[in-house]
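Thread: quick sanity check before group meeting

JM: Hey all, I'm pulling together slides for Thursday and realized we never actually wrote out the predicted structure for the chain we discussed last week. Dropping the sequence here so it's in one place. If anyone has concerns about the input, flag it before I start.
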Amino acid sequence: MPKGYLAIVLHAHLPFVRHPESETYLEERWLFEALTETYIPLLQTYEGLLRDGVDFRVTMSISPTLAAMLSDELLQERYSQHLSRLIELAQMEVVRTKEMPEYYSLACAYREKFLAIHDYYLFYEKNILSAFRKIQDTGKLEIITCAATHAFLPLVWTEEAIRAQIATAVHHHRVYFGKAPKGIWLPECGYKPDIDKVLKEYGIEYFFVDSHALLSAKPTPVHGLLSPIITPHGIAAFARDEDSSKQVWSMTEGYPGDFDYREYYRDIGYDLDYDVIKPYIHPEGIRVNTGMKYYRITGKSDHKEPYNFAKAREKAAQHAGNFMFNREKQVEHHASQMDRQPIVVAPYDAELFGHWWYEGPIFLDMLFRKIFYDQETIETITPSEYLDIYRDYQVCQLSMSSWGRGGYADVWLRGENDWIYPALHTAEQRMVELANTHTNVDRETSRALNQAARELMLAQSSDWAFIMDNQTMVDYAVKRTKYHINRFTRLYDMVKTNSVDETWLARIEEMDKVFPELDYKSYQSSYPVVRYEETKNKLCVLMLSWEFPPLTVGGLSRHVYDLSRYLVKNGVEVHVLTMHVDGCEANEIVEGVHVHRVHIMKPDGGEFIHFIFQLNLMMVDACSALVKSGLTFDLVHAHDWLVTDAAQTIKHLYNLPLIATIHATEHGRNDGLHTELQHKIHQQEWELTYEAWRVIVCSTYMRQEVEQIFQLPHDKVDVLPNGVDRKLLTPRHDVEASKAGYADDDEQVVLFVGRLVREKGVHILLEAAPAILAAHPKAKFIVVGAGPAESDFRHMSTQLGLGSKVLFTGFVSDEARNRLLHSADVAVFPSLYEPFGIVALEAMAAGTPVVVSDVGGLADVVQHETNGLKMYAGDVRSLTNQVNALLGNPDWAQNLANTAISQIDRYDWDHIAKGTTKIYQRVLVERETVHGWLEAASATLSATAEVGDADESQ
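JM (edit): ok, ran it. Output follows.
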């Protein structure tokens, strides 16, 4: 029995390129080169292994678009003609190089290879899918599918469109290969939560992700990358092994870069004199690769030596042996540490083997033979066979991920290609609309609907965005995207107006002839479509916020949650657009608030601005979907700069007044603007306040700040404080104020709650701790929260020798936080910058004495020695004195806390919601007044113009 397994996975895919109108499209050569250099050589390798009795396993995904091209009669005939020209070229080269021994043997070898490929192609009657199917039926090759047109699924907007891609792929796979696929190659390894739910509907058992996707799963996989995990919907996810990937893929460390291998970039299509090569290149004289290359890589300079096939074959055998040896050692190392035999998953683009790496098929041939004959540590296996061995796989939640640069969609959503997604998302929604509203139609309309689905799918191909990013055949990729979207739009209009142009439709059906059995009904919603009825007497508000519970990064999440639900209690209909959270529904009602969560990649270091762009793009699409569903908004309310672009777009797109709440400023947070990123954020903040009809802030301090740094007129800004939840108003003597798990019963708790960033002043509290402990040895400092400065603060606590006297809890639940607020002796908020400080208000509402910095909104909330104590911001001694005063006089401290409770009503959310509603109503009245004035002015100008015209005519 082997100690472990190796799964070789080859992803074979090309975008659908078929141009019956012309034979001059260079892009058709993509298929011809792949057939000659990869697909047929791989098939010949597999058949050779079978013929010699070698037991092997390989998994190949054959994308539905590639399968469609391989089975297309027009392309089959054109490839046959291409092969004939290649053979003619090789014969010419045999003659030309007769007296050139270093090239003659190569020319002869190419001629024999092309003849063998031609014979092989004709043997299978020009349809090599039957060859793949024959090898599949031996059990040595497992063929899996891909999304229908290789759409990058994380950026597909609707579940219906994802379902259509999968449904079409599975159906046509069954047609091509006689059985349903057990696995799927998600295009670009692109995954987002709930895709597994759709895969489950269509019987898919497994898919693949890049290594970082599994390593960041929740909980962390106990077997790392060497065993699949199971998603919440029961689909297995296999991860790419990093070591085996590097050995083949890496430009610097990978085998294909060996100096003895064939040089890809030296082809006779470019090397020979133009008059010699002219008959064998593009009809318009464009030089192209012919596949005949006479040089080896040689080195990193431009100097190249002749290629020696025998030496390259020997090197491929050595590399196959090295690869096998490394997998043996890898398996041996991990097998003893696991409760199962590990599986090493090595996925690659199939075109690497033969096309890019000429010796690739030889490497695979040698590898399978060596594994079979030369060792007993590993065996090759398919993923489905491995899943049959064990039944107890760990269940984990995967986040959004992809392979490629950056690992989170960076290649497919950039400035070069981001323009395609609004058009794609609109088309998706229109296709879903057509499918839901056209269930019984005549044959002509059905043809138009099916072709509309084809055009949408072809436009969704991830290849177009990849090409735009890669800067190769950009014009072609742009044209293909626009052609398909334009054709879809025309078909949509035809169906909507019941005026199908049958002649035009027939021409488009012939041009984009893919998936003959595609059914537009695969776009139908699997659940009733929600239609919102207009509520004329009810104010309807669209609220934009990047965070909303359970996603809580700072105080913004809690503010939007409380404000929105209390607005609902005051008769306002509220729809919140926010970011998706794993485990939450995309659309749900939370305490009367309609919450709509958009799927995007998570912020990741330097990609933060890119994340914000994506968030805003998705918010605009979501708003469009809501409007199409029947909603009419009265105004849009944006919270902070992260939603500026969406707020601006929605404002102008739907002619809505915009309200903006500024919770903090980049200038204030950083005491100025010092970096390029800070300047960008400041510009976004300025644009939001400029576009807003009114700006809401939470304190008089913030009013002064925004008026100054954004040059806002005084009468454009409203001050509404943050609120506190009434649940915290229960006096501490009515609540079990337990310190259990955090401090001993006799310890005096000094509590901090907030984000662990420097501006919150945690370092000031830590510096004050030794002096406080000197006066009150029973003091215990509890720091609740998480943030980028946490490790710095922990290190600082160690350096100060505070030991067990400081407890960093990390992020805690609301219940645990509230228990700590009730049980603390003092709550300290030593902020250097604080627009409001809602958590200080919550501590006061819980009956806990507070010490706050005399800055920002905290200065509005706390009156020194009346309802709490103030300290000078950044002053360690001042903080020490205030905390010692409260700990040393608990009765006085309690009196301050009682006063705070008695004053808390002005921060009641019901009161704040009523104030917000008044601002909404004021804006709507002002807007009507302005519109009336503009209409009157326009009428006056028109009348004046008519009089002027009359006078002139006289």
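AS: nice. The chain has a mean pLDDT of 90. Residues 909-953 form the longest helix (45 residues).
JM: adding both to the slides.
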